[in-house]
């Protein structure tokens, strides 16, 4: 979780969804392929996203270990989870949208189960 959100995000009233706070409280942070980034990792990705996709206000929170996909909240739709293929050309970065964090988490856990059966 990024505790020191950049001012431009605070001005747009960014706030983490309650569901995100809950999974952090429960220490649900590692799902083999996906993991919740620590603050340093998330800040580094946030800075990179601002450079690569300046028209978007993405707040990264999780990274996929086997590729460049990252899960983000988008200020335009703060409850939804956006899967971004980081380092793709602008306009081609969007991979998928989940309606909420629980939907994303369910798929992350399902992938964990399937890969370990």
TrEMBL record:
<dbReference type="Pfam" id="PF09346">
    <property type="entry name" value="SMI1_KNR4"/>
</dbReference>
<dbReference type="InterPro" id="IPR018958">
    <property type="entry name" value="Knr4/Smi1-like_dom"/>
</dbReference>
<protein>
    <recommendedName>
        <fullName>Knr4/Smi1-like domain-containing protein</fullName>
    </recommendedName>
</protein>
<dbReference type="InterPro" id="IPR037883">
    <property type="entry name" value="Knr4/Smi1-like_sf"/>
</dbReference>
<feature type="domain" description="Knr4/Smi1-like">
    <location>
        <begin position="22"/>
        <end position="106"/>
    </location>
</feature>
